[in-house]
Design brief:
This is Aminoglycoside phosphotransferase. It comes from Iodidimonas muriae. Residues 23-268 form the Aminoglycoside phosphotransferase domain. With 355 residues, this protein is α+β, with helices and mostly antiparallel strands. It has two domains: 3-148 and 202-271, Phosphorylase Kinase, domain 1; 153-197 and 277-348, no CATH class. 47% of the residues lie in helices and 13% in strands. Helix 5 packs antiparallel against helix 6 and helix 5 (153-171) crosses helix 9 (278-307). The longest helix is centred in the last third of the chain and has 30 residues, at 278-307.
Length: 355
């Protein structure tokens, strides 16, 4: 049976076989999305083909977020082992789209997103989560619980090495002594990761930014913030999702707004009776901001070279700017020197690789 035939069978069993299907622009993964319309009802189809994709982490995190009372989409039906999910439709008003239409809503929307992080970071999350406990109709063979990965130094290093794995051969194919350059890069990051305060990890959604947050003004409180794209969630540092929100790869967040939202987050923690060492938090925010920027530079280059998705290259100059700003904020002279020596600034402004 072809994947399309299996999909039609899934839709028939879920009661949506007669719905009209409308493609939704995809993300940087192998997943494919469609909006299904049947009369006055809508739903979202996620087609996540194995082995490239695994819907179990998505379902596990979705269940946890909904147990907290957040607006993650309800799972209406699924076939876990085939990677088919039918989800509640949270609409098409992402934070990014709303702000483009109503610039006056930028600050209130970011405040709502920060307040949700404050709340989330004061909720304990188990190391193992059930996968299908909130699915109304699911078909699966013995689906095990999902083990939440730690966002530790090893994973941070694997991610930051994406820059040297993909950007260097794509943009600097003739770089001499690449092995030494990569070794030096990793050694410098080792030093930075050792400075992070890794105590009291929280649930990190990892893709917490304006295109993955939906504005649901008809709901109350924190439920006004709709949550998408959280299948890569981990246990990690509380600053990471704040960095994702305020150092967006796809849109500029002004420095004054960024500073105000960091201050709001820290004030929110104080109000909860969980005050943070603010000097250490700002240090870790800058380190993780630099790590995330370097990772995304590597990922966007990989999307171009491996997957033919060249549109992500347009975001490289913004990510280089964020990387440089974060390194300067934490006074990372040795890493800045590595960049100046290995990837001179004129190279960082390019949006087309060699070859």
């Amino acid at each position: 049976m072809s994947r399309e035939q299996a999909l039609l069978t899934f839709l028939d069993r879920a009661g949506w076989g007669d719905a009209s299907r409308h493609p939704i622009p995809g993300d940087a993964s192998f997943r494919r999305y469609e909006r299904l319309v049947r009369g006055d009802r809508c739903a979202i189809l996620m087609d996540a083909p194995p082995p490239q994709e695994d819907v179990r982490p998505f379902l596990a995190i979705l269940g946890q977020l909904r147990r907290f009372g957040y607006s993650a989409p309800a799972a209406l039906s699924c076939v876990v082992n085939d990677g088919f999910l039918l989800l509640e439709d949270l609409g098409d008003q992402s934070f990014n789209q709303v702000i483009q239409a109503r610039a006056d809503l930028e600050t209130p929307l970011y405040e709502a997103a920060v307040d949700l992080l404050v709340d989330l970071h004061n909720r304990p999350v188990a190391a193992r989560l059930p996968v299908v406990d909130q699915v109304a109709d699911q078909v699966a063979d013995q689906v095990p619980d999902h083990s939440m990965p730690p966002y530790d130094a090893a994973l941070l290093m694997r991610e930051v090495t994406l820059l040297t794995d993909w950007y260097l051969p794509a943009f600097l194919p003739d770089l001499p002594d690449v092995q030494k350059a990569v070794s030096d890069w990793q050694a410098l990051w080792d030093i930075l990761f050792c400075r992070l305060d890794s105590r009291n990890p929280v649930l990190v959604l990892r893709d917490y930014h304006a295109d993955n947050l939906m504005w649901l003004p008809h709901r109350n409180g924190l439920a006004k913030v709709g949550l998408l794209d959280f299948q890569d969630a981990v246990h990690g540092h509380r600053a990471y999702d704040l960095v994702s929100l305020l150092q967006d790869a796809r849109r500029d967040v002004s420095p004054p707004l960024e500073a105000a939202m960091i201050a709001r987050y820290l004030a929110g923690q104080r109000l909860r009776g969980t005050p943070l060492d603010e000097t250490a938090f700002h240090r870790d925010y800058a380190i993780l901001g630099a790590q995330r920027a370097a990772k995304i530079i590597g990922i966007f280059t990989r999307l171009s070279k491996r997957d033919g998705k060249d549109r992500y290259l347009a975001f490289l100059p913004r990510m280089w700017g964020l990387l440089e700003r974060n390194l300067a904020a934490h006074d990372c002279d040795a890493l800045e020197a590595w960049l100046d020596r290995t990837i001179p600034k004129p190279t960082r402004s390019r949006t087309r690789p060699n070859g």
